[in-house]
Fold this protein.
Amino acid sequence: MSRALAPILAGLIGLAGSLGATLFLHRAASTALDRVLEERLRGAGETAAGMFGRVEPSGAELRSVMTSNGLEGAYLLSRGLAVLADATGPAGHQADLLRVDTTRAARAFQGEPSVDFGYAVGDLRIASGYFPVRGPDGSVRAVLALEAGQAFAGARAGLRRALWIGIAVSALGALTLALVARKWAASEEQRSAAAARAARGDALARMAAMVAHEIRNPIGIIRGAVDLVRERSSGVLGPKDREALADVVGEVERLRRLTQDFLDLSRDPALVTGPEDLGAIAAEAARGLARTYPDVAVRVEVGPLSVNADRGRLQQVLSNLLLNSAQAGARTVELRAEATGRMARLEVRDDGPGIDPSLRGRLFDVFATGRPDGTGLGLALSRRIVERHGGALALVSNGAAGAVFELRLPLATG
């Protein structure tokens, strides 16, 4: 559960951190931009107010100030808030009180200039400035009102776009972090599972070696004793007795193979590899199955393919696969092979009941078996042998019509 939540938590932490940084930078940039815009409007207003203190401004002169500074409006107010001159319209009328900040205009008549973001149009705050226009005697005879235009609004709109881009980049970064964390969690889970399987396999291998060592000698003694009884009593034993002794020998042989499998689990005997005819090995494994399961038809369709393999070990793998099919109830098994690049691909397909879906994920684990009398060693050993050859063994189909195993081995070179 904690590993499953790790990517989500990592993504949320990354998103919170990046959004926090983005909002902090936006706030800092917005404050700095307000300061720059304020100073820009203040400079334009004080310069124009100083100029108009010496001349009587007209609408054309106000338009020149408005245009050169990228403003939205410029007009001159009297103490009674009448418009003395306007860059965008006629003069001589009372100012629009929805447009004019009367408090700041009054302070300007007292000689106090001001710049502020007084009102907003939609989500865009509009900056305005009120500047005293002094006559030759130094008294304030009018107030110059300036309103910021698109040049001011454009900078703020660009900052707003930068904020949304920053939020999008933050979300993308958080998503990337979540994906990386998810991949890391998955790899950690796989690594932990692999380590657990390796530890379990090592413990099983040590136990298998101990058990095999302890029972191999008694098995040899039993086999020798049965052979001695058969030799000495061959003339007096009836058919049922001989059949019983044959059953004992068969069971002893099964135990011998089982102990050998246990020993193979505990060690990796050296492979003696060389160029081998895959078709010949497959045919030999098929003949071996026919001796114990004569009712199972094995069709070998393998052309001339030379693989680099240990003949005995590879035959053991194919015998295990054929035996599993027969014991599962298959009546027909097909072996087909082809060369794919530098590898030989051998397919073993049967018409049995297929593999139980609940067993599929651990099919090649030690002691995993779908048969009540199975040991679960054959496929585990087979995969180990194939991988030691530099190949791979996998279940590639699990349909209702049977099971399909794929065996890949390196082709012989030279």
